[in-house]
Design goal:
With about 400 residues, the chain is of the alpha/beta class. It is about 40% helix and about 15% strand. It has a seven-stranded mixed sheet, with helices on both faces. Strands 9-10-13-12 form a four-stranded antiparallel sheet. Strands 1-11 form a two-stranded parallel ribbon. Helix 8 links the parallel strand 5 (about 165-170) and strand 6. It is globular and about 60 Å long. Its cofactor is pyridoxal 5'-phosphate. It comes from Streptomyces stramineus.
Length: about 400
């Protein structure tokens, strides 16, 4: 079985589908589990997803209203809702975050007169968009740092060449869903202003950054000139994203949205699901973030109790409701152990495992959502031990 890690659909590490019956087996094991710590996104059937949308829709939008046509109706209401939540003048709905970000950067390049974007080499644009910013939009990137962390203000000030836009991913997913402190973030933004650059937030997961920063969404968004947010990574929507910022920028972005093929005739299912997510999931995110800290501590305790020779929970104290776990075992063995545990006991612990670039180490992304809130530290420790007990003797660095 070969498999490639791609951008995630719900924050838990989506991948291209495994060949054969592996994916079906994993989904069956997950769906049959009574207790789920960190699940797989998009594990529902078409019928279940339709039933959920039908159940959520009446509270999210007037079902007697007509469907949207090229962005009016429910799509327009969603755009207004996002602008109000973020405290921006306007917002535009996009079918994908990749399109939203490409359009934002293209608009800023025209306004600043610079095709150069300062961004992290682990950013979504570099890792998960097939170089679209360069191939499609003709932009060029410079990297403030290669370290797996957000850039510092000093690194922004010391960039050897001018740039028109600074893109900051909040949180930085591929570095471990990490965030700067509020003071560090404001200093980085100030450093970009000193360089006469605009600031764009890749805020696909901005919704869950509020507890870490201790600031509301409008205050966070106000630091940037434009912000992109996702409706499905944390909010449980079907798809879609929004680009928020000044009204003039959003109006221009809608022109480019049409040119990029994003002027879809009807998008009401995605828009209704997004409104439901804003109503239901957004208020719950702080509780997920708080419980992620409990789960992370318990995982570390479980690995120590099981005698794992080396492990890493990163960050040790999660910044959001997502974090990484690294173990010294082959990903395939960890996958099999987790699936067999679910099949035998109805307990699902981890999402997908991947062999890392470091030989002998596997990594997974843990997402703490509603299904994890009932897990006590003792339950997490016991479940970790049950997974590791299923590894073959002599497996990896500590079996």
């Amino acid at each position: 079985m070969t498999e490639e890690k791609t951008d995630d659909g719900g924050g838990a590490g989506e991948t291209t589908a495994p060949r054969g019956g592996e994916r079906a087996r994993r989904l069956a094991a997950l769906r049959g589990s009574e207790r789920v710590l960190s699940g797989i996104p998009h594990g529902l059937t078409v019928g279940e997803r339709l039933a959920r949308l039908a159940a959520d829709a009446p509270a999210a939008y007037d079902l007697d209203a007509g469907v949207d046509t090229y962005g009016d109706g429910v799509v327009g209401e969603l755009e207004q809702r996002v602008a109000e939540l973020l405290g921006t003048e306007a917002a535009a709905f996009f079918p994908t975050g990749t399109m939203a970000q490409q359009v934002a950067l293209r608009c800023w390049a025209g306004r600043t007169g610079s095709q150069v974007v300062a961004l992290h080499p682990l950013s979504h644009l570099e890792k998960h968009e097939r170089g679209a910013y360069a191939v499609v939009s003709g932009l060029r990137a410079v990297h403030p740092t290669d370290e797996p962390r957000p850039p510092t203000a000093e690194e922004i000030r010391e960039l050897a060449e001018p740039f028109g836009t600074l893109l900051l991913e909040l949180p930085q997913r591929d570095a471990g869903f990490v965030l700067p402190t509020w003071e560090e973030l404001t200093e980085v933004v100030e450093a970009a202003r000193e360089r006469d650059a605009v600031v764009h937030f890749d805020g696909a997961r901005l919704w869950e950054c509020v507890p870490h920063f201790g600031r509301g969404l409008p205050e966070i968004a106000a630091l940037a000139d434009s912000v992109y947010v996702s409706f499905y990574k944390s909010l449980g929507g079907l798809s879609g994203a929004a680009l928020a910022g000044p009204a003039a920028l959003v109006a221009e972005a809608k022109v480019w949205r049409h040119r990029y093929g994003g002027e879809v005739v009807q998008q009401w299912p995605a828009a209704v699901a997004a409104l439901a997510g804003l109503d239901q999931e957004l208020p719950r995110l702080p509780s997920y973030v708080a419980h992620a800290k409990v789960v992370a501590r318990a995982l570390a305790e479980g690995f120590r109790a099981a005698g794992v020779p080396w492990f890493r929970v990163h960050p040790g104290v999660p910044h959001t409701h997502q974090f990484q776990v690294w173990l010294p075992y082959p990903a395939a063995e960890l996958e099999e152990a987790g699936v067999s545990l679910a099949e035998e006991s109805g307990i699902w612990v981890f999402s997908r495992w991947f062999d890392s670039e470091v030989p002998g180490l596997a990594v997974t992304e843990v997402t703490v959502g509603s299904s994890a809130l009932g897990w006590t530290p003792e339950a997490v420790v016991a479940a970790v031990g049950a997974v590791l007990d299923r590894l073959p003797a002599g497996c990896g660095g500590g079996g």
